[in-house]
Amino acid sequence: MRRRTAAGQIAALVVVVACLLGSSSARAATRHDVDASIDDAGRRVTLHDTITGLDAPASGRLTLWTYADRQRSAPPSFDEFTAERLFVGGVSYGGFERVVATIDGCPAVDLSRPSDERVDPVRGRFADLPLCADARAPLVGRVEAVLVLAERYGTLGRARAGTQLGDPWYPLVVERGAESP
């Protein structure tokens, strides 16, 4: 039996609100139904996302945006003052530890970040999910992921006794070439 913490219930509520608001770069019919739980220490978020209402793009691939992966490295403007202001207990990094995605009718694809891949410290990471010949619109996608939260003050992370999930913290389907989300 899965134990759901109060923090996990709050995270699920945040997801519902975010889905209702929508994403400017995803199609209006696209819906993310995210079930998430946060471990007792507030350090890891485990999520299961079902994405419905997806059209089959002409490119033959869907693009997932993992914005939270930006926490894997320091931004270019990072300096000693920034470190003291954001990281109360010393510099800490986060990001996705695991991301596995499937489109109904296609095999699962492990989109976990290789350790040597450079991730944009401002925009995060964009990962392509290829469609197989058996994929039929409207597509249904599923993402299973584990997000490690940095010990930091800000809109995404953990500081003192609080966990913040204010930034896009779960992978979003986006269109390449669209305006930045």
Quick overview:
The chain has 181 residues and is mainly beta. Helices cover 13% and strands 35% of the residues. The chain is built from two helices and ten strands, in the order αβββαβββββββ.
Tell me about this structure:
The protein is mostly beta strands. The chain contains two helices and ten strands, in the order αβββαβββββββ. It has helices at residues 6-21, 80-86, and strands at residues 31-38, 44-54, 61-66, 95-103, 109-110, 125-130, 139-148, 156-159, 162-165, 172-174. The strands form three sheets. It has a five-stranded antiparallel sheet. Strands 6-3-10 form a three-stranded antiparallel sheet, with no helix packed on it. β1 and β2 form a beta hairpin. The longest helix is centred in the N-terminal third of the chain and has 16 residues, at 6-21. It is elongated and about 50 Å long. 29% of the residues are buried.
Overall average pLDDT: 78
Strand order across the largest sheet: 1-2-7-4-5
Succession of helices and strands: HEEEHEEEEEEE
Shape: elongated
Record field, number of beta strands: 10
Strand content: 25-35%
The main sheet comes to:
5 strands, antiparallel
Q: Residue share in helices?
A: 10-25%
Structural class determined from secondary elements: mainly beta
Radius of gyration: 16 Å
Q: Count every helix, treating DSSP H or I runs of 4 or more residues as helices.
A: 2
**Poorly predicted ranges (pLDDT <50, ≥5 residues)?**
9-27
State the separation between the terminal residues, measured CA to CA.
Answer: 37 Å
